[in-house]
Amino acid sequence: MQSLTALLGLLNLIFFKPYNAIKMNHLNKISILFFLLLNLFFTACEKDNPTPGEDFGTFDLIFDNRVGDQAVSLVNADATEFPYTNNMGQSFNLTLLGYYISKIELAGPNGEYFADEISTGADAAQVKGFYHVLESDPNSQNIRLDRIPAGKYDQVTFTLGIDAETVQEGATGGVLDPAEGAWLWNWDAGYIAFGIEGRSPASPREADQFNPENGVQIHIGGWKDIAGNANMVNNVKRITLDFPSAVNIESRLSPNAHLEMDLLKVLDGHANNVDFSTTYAVHAPAKGKVFADNLAAAFSVDHVHQ
Amino acid sequence: MHFSNLYSFSNSLFGIGLLALLLSSCTREKGIAPVAVAYEFAAPAEFPDPIYTFKNNPITKEGFLLGKRLFFDPILSADHTISCASCHIQSLAFADVPLHGVSVGVNGLSGTRNAPALANLAFKPEFFWDGGVTHLDFAPLNAIESEFEMGSCIEDVIEKLNAHPQYPSLFRQAFTTEKVTTPYLLYALAQFMNRMISDQSPYDQYLAGTAKLSEPEIRGMDLFQQHCASCHDGILFTDYSYRNNGLDSLAIDPGRARISAFAGDHGKFQVPSLRNVGVTAPYMHDARFRTLEAVLDHYSEGVVASPTLDMSLQRGDQLGIQLTDSEKAAIIAFLHTLTDRDFLNDPLFRRE
């Protein structure tokens, strides 16, 4: 029965394609209608017992940002409270925190596999599979994946940042449009993968047009992994995380995974802890590398909900 | 995969469809195209394959004309005083006027680099003297948002364009978009710039066998091949590599190292194309030489040592490329054969 439907689906495809391009006559219309009805009939019969390959479900990836054991809560640039402390004992606050997630894949123990649809283009509607997770926008922290083949899944893989393949497509809309808030560097054109801004009394930065007094800005970018760019720093990371337990995805369920990002692991994970008295303006790939190398370890799956 | 098979299979089932297909293709082939301006991109036969992503942004008449209008419109600058064409002037192969060694933007602020000529950009893998930009689409953002150039922020520019009496409908015609957005602005500018192909210089005509070069020009060509083509290579006169051609013992501008953060790249700049070089004075990234004579004197007598000086400009203790006065003159004569008057005067690029 299944293979028959598949065959009919294929026939449908064959008959449909060319006749979109040229004028249809009545005979064609009738034949298409006939196959369509047949197809519908068979699919309708199978609705009741979903089997792998025909049922699809959704899955939510929910990003929770933390600083050690504290939840992140953003403040305005004029705030005088500094709720977080780094390993050097320097207090700081955060006015901005975010990152790009893209090219998400799910995998399961029995070969289950799902790749989020990826597309780019000038029109915002063409841009799919790229997510700008911003602490300031709770909606952006909840990524809804759709049309996942039903099955068991226990692993997620994603790209942190925007990779060479995407940048080299040229100007792109939606979350990659700088006038819509995309984090795009002009001078070394490409996207910032991960960024924080805030203040620390330890930072000697003086106020200017772009920075508050004691400002700290750490922008991790750099994506060049292309021919002739041997000396470039590529800070785009591919990160794979295992779930503590497998989840079932099917149309009747709405499971999710809570992913945690611990900023302290980004700042302090490398050989030397971050020192805001000397490191407070990171705006180039090479300077961001020490932090980028910590990113994979900063993300984890806290728990999953079935 | 087997798309052609699918098509023929279904067509033989429905003969009427096949007929319709045949008829339409016949009329298309036989139809005589009206004599019209060619807006589409066509790579000159001798040039390499273009690199630009034309699949995303092919040149159309509407897109090109919109790009042209934007290129000449000071609306892109913060105080409505500067347009792209203020620094990129067609009669100078879209380089800046000699008076502006380094470019001068809004509020009279000076940048630190010389505006390069704009031509044959579709073939260029990386842009700017340091190669920081790897796609033509992104190049204009640097001018629009630089405080030394146009001083705007892109959000403001997009807002101004959306509020304009004509631009929204021009964008709709060019891209069927309801709203002016950054990518479409960049697409339009890229269409205008991608169409800037310069391939009709006397040198090109010489290669095509339709014109002759003079004796000193031929001699200059041979000398150029011998001494300069290792870097200014091929039909576009650049291999797009980053090199230090011996301007300074310690370059003020880090050049390529600004992008790579690699000390071995300090003072290296992208080898510029020399097409139309006769009209793009002053020369080098910081506009230090006013004439081609000064450039040739530099290569012959002025090359200075530094840790990143290109190997081809040092042979033991000997620095540079030793040339006699008559050799220099011959090379300069050859460089002038790269001036493409058709391109400099093409009404296609003129403000409407």
What attributes does this structure have?
heterodimer, A: 306 residues, alpha+beta, 2 domains, five-stranded mixed β-sheet, 6 helices, 15 strands, 35% strand, globular, B: mainly alpha, Cytochrome Bc1 Complex, Chain D, domain 2, two-stranded antiparallel ribbon, two-stranded antiparallel sheet, 14 helices, disordered N terminus, heme binding (chain B)
Give structural notes.
The complex is a heterodimer of chains A (306) and B (352). Chain A has 306 residues and is α+β, with helices and mostly antiparallel strands. Chain A folds into 2 domains: 2-45, no CATH class; 56-305, no CATH class. Chain A has helices spanning 2-21, 26-46, 164-167, 263-268, 285-292, 295-298, and strands spanning 56-67, 70-71, 84-85, 91-107, 113-115, 130-134, 142-149, 151-160, 184-185, 190-199, 215-221, 237-249, 256-262, 281-282, 299-305. In chain A, a hairpin with a 2-residue loop joins strand 1 and strand 2 (70-71). Chain A is globular, with a radius of gyration of 24 Å. Chain B is mainly alpha-helical. Chain B has 2 domains: 61-197, Cytochrome Bc1 Complex, Chain D, domain 2; 202-342, Cytochrome Bc1 Complex, Chain D, domain 2 (Orthogonal Bundle), CATH 1.10.760. Chain B has 14 helices and 4 strands. A two-stranded antiparallel ribbon of chain B has the order 1-2. Chain B has a two-stranded antiparallel sheet with strand order 3-4. In chain B, helix 1 packs across helix 2, helix 3 (61-71) packs antiparallel against helix 7 (167-175) and helix 12 (292-302) packs across helix 13 (325-336). The longest helix of chain B is centred in the first third of the chain and has 16 residues, at 15-30. The chains are: A alpha+beta (306), B mainly alpha (352). Chains A and B meet through helix 1 and helix 5 of A and helix 1, helix 2, helix 5, helix 6 and helix 8 of B. Chain B: Its main location: periplasm. Chain B: This is Cytochrome-c peroxidase. Chain B: It holds the Pfam family CCP_MauG.
